[in-house]
Amino acid sequence: MRDLEQIEKIIEKKQALLLDVSHKIWGFAELPYAETRSCALLCETLRKEGFTVEEGVAEMPTSFTGTFINGAGKPVMGFLGEFDALDILSQEAGNPVRCPVKEGFPGHGCGHNALGAGSLGAAIALKEYLMANGKPGTVVYYGCAAEEGAGAKQFMARAGLFDSVDFIYTWHPANHSGVDGKGSNAIMGANFEFTGVTSHAGGSPHLGRSALDAAELMSVGVNYLREHTIDKARIHYAYADAGGVSPNVVQDRTLVKYEVRSPKIAQVKELFGRVVDVARGAALMSGTVMKYEITFAFSDYIPNDALAKVAGECMKEVGAPKWDDEDYALAKAFLDTYNEETLRGIREQAAELYGSDRVDEVLAKPLDDAVQPYDPSDAKIVSGGSTDVGDVTYAAPTLNLRVATACIGNVGHTWQTTAQAGSRLADKGLLTAAKVLALSAIRTMDRPDVIARAKELVLRQNGGKYVCPLPDTLHPPVGRY
User: What's the pLDDT band for 334 if we cut at 50, 70, 90?
Assistant: First the structure.
């Protein structure tokens, strides 16, 4: 029996289990570092499937590994799983009309319920394949907490959890299917705290030292800084504590969160240092005291070209999810929920991806039914977002795939994504992803030349050793993020 046929039979046998896991995690909808029920469900499932589970890895209660060893245990093959949700995105599953399950509660607006279950399916399928064919190898499912928060994978990489793995595959729910050839930005976030002196703002303002003034001066300084950064750099901020609600009291405290992005982690570190200098200047000007704490940092994601070529062929062999008329109708209902401005952007993206002559045809049945070809030149393109998967690419050969689970043009981190992540669309997508990931691992394990080339590419990236972008003294901010 061909390897793909074996994988398809295993996934078909495990389909009910995998969908049940996905649906339950979707219902749990737990925020970063608080994914206790999702973590417990995945660990329990792995144990029942014959994996040895280690919980609480890298100082994070909801991060874990599930390991299965057959024979001599080489090569070591990994799959990344995520399972955290996003705040305030609660929405009924499959409902294209805004209707939260619980108003203001979290929801799976990035589809991590499907991501975790799809990778789980790949790990189980690869384990079953090794046993059925008497092949040696180790399968590791990495349960990664808080991708939407301060991350887990950089802490896991720092703890050496990826050091012995030969290659790692992962995926992400998307509105199209194909090898993710684009990179992503590195990012660093920090809390800046200013401390001043309270006083009566009318009677004795000269005795006060305003922490709010300091925070606003920092904003002004950073705004001037923006002109003198590379085009692809981004600086975001939010007030976590403005110092109170009484205008007639000089504020003696403020807390501002800043995030800095750039295509490379070295660029992020340099730009972050300049932001810190602006904060120091703001404190000097306002007569306050500033201190800052780095809260998280992700390295840039770099697709591994050696793995991408293998996975690209596997994706074409498996194919995109098989949609039916009910799927197309549901996807069209979700597409129609977007406003005119968003729809204009979706039409432009569709023209670029499918050709301007096919836009109306594609958006009438807005589900990607083909595998988009892998283009190595896409590596020069950097998406605006960031992910802690980037740190894994600096530690071991790693590749991310994308599989359609939502309508063409779907906007991530929205209630629409939450609804589709709990629907039949995501079900079909995660099962397809499980097959592609497992087949890619099988085809890679039989190609020592590919593994060697993949490791050579990582060596070029990291210079011989993974270097965490976070200080060694910084621990995962469990319960503090």
Answer: very high
| Distance separating alpha carbons of residues 203 and 213, to the nearest angstrom | 18
Mind listing the pLDDT tens digit for each residue in 93-147?
Answer: 999 999 999 999 999 999 999 999 999 999 999 999 999 999 999 999 999 999 9
The owner of tokens 């029920």 is 37
Please report the domains of the chain, with CATH numbers, ordered by start residue. 3-184+300-462 (3.40.630.10), 186-297 (3.30.70.360)
Which residue type occupies 170?
T
The residue that leads in pLDDT, 52 or 353, is 52
Query: Looking at residue 382, what is its pLDDT?
Result: 82
Decide if 369 contacts 323 (C-beta within 8 A): yes
The residues that bridge with 238 in the sheet, in sequence order, are 257
What predicted TM-score, i.e. pTM, was given to this entire model?
0.94
> Sheet containing 253-262: which strands, arranged edge to edge?
234-241, 253-262, 186-195, 289-298
* CA–CA gap between residue 152 and residue 145 (Å, rounded): 6
User: Which amino acid would we find at residue 57?
Assistant: V
Phi and psi at residue 32, in whole multiples of 5°? -50, 135
Q: How does residue 1 score in pLDDT terms, banded at 50, 70 and 90?
A: low
* CA–CA gap between residue 433 and residue 328 (Å, rounded): 19
Question: What value, to the nearest 5°, has the Cα angle with vertex 312 and ends 306 and 316?
Answer: 160
- Decide if 153 contacts 391 (C-beta within 8 A): yes
- Cβ atoms of residues 162 and 78 within 8 Å: yes
pLDDT score of 385: 83
Q: Which residues pair with 298 in a beta bridge?
A: 187
Which residue blocks in 380-445 are alpha helix, DSSP H?
Answer: 389-395, 415-421, 424-445
**Do residues 176 and 331 lie in contact, with contact meaning Cβ atoms separated by under 8 Å?**
no
